[in-house]
Amino acid sequence: MYNNYIKEEAELIFANSLNLSRKDVAVMSNNTTSSIITIGRKYGSAGRQIGQEVAKYFGIKCYDKELLEHAANDSGICKELFEHHDEKPTNSFLYSLVMDTYSFGYSSAGFTDMPMNHKIFLAQFEAIKKLASEGPCVMVGRCADYALADNPDCFSVFVHANLDWRINRIAQKYNKNAKEAKDMINKTDKSRSSYYNYYTNKKWGSADSYNLCLDSSKLGIDGTAKAIIEAIHIYDSLKK
Fold this sequence. Notes:
Blueprint: H1 2-17, H2 22-28, E1 36-41, H3 47-58, E2 61-63, H4 66-75, H5 79-85, H6 93-99, H7 109-112, H8 116-133, E3 137-140, H9 144-147, E4 154-160, H10 163-174, H11 178-200, E5 212-215, H12 216-239
């Protein structure tokens, strides 16, 4: 009885601090959501793992590389091309023309004449919107926040972390030395940044491009997931 009283008082204080009603707080205590959560991430910041933890908490799906398979199935473009172009802008027009011979599916003249990297992006764009229309989920990377910019249920997150923390994590995960891990990080971050900036006209990793930015080296993987979960609870309560 006493513990319930303490809990109710704590909820009231929390509600007042955020100008929320008790009903809003009650909603936040449930592990459900109506939101589509997109997670951009620096390489080695554990964005995928964090996304999986958030999805597990809410009982929803987490799409990372799975987005490529959905896009390939929907577009008729072979999956290997999606994997090759994954978050990698290709500026070589000649390369695009050569790779275009492996494409099939979309028959409109405009799409057929388009460079392969643009076809891949548009196919992913459509797959992201289609999956979002099916209900709440977590989407990792691939400009999902941009694809869903007009969706009122979309909440965008960017996860970053201290470079040394990321180097240590990648070195342990892939059995690399510090230099090799740093090279992997720099190469992947450069690719993701170029891809995002090229297709969205926004700046990858900039706070202005997202609803929430978090440092997983400060909060830890579990702490970052919990911070996202709490933010989503608040966001969901404000949508009602």
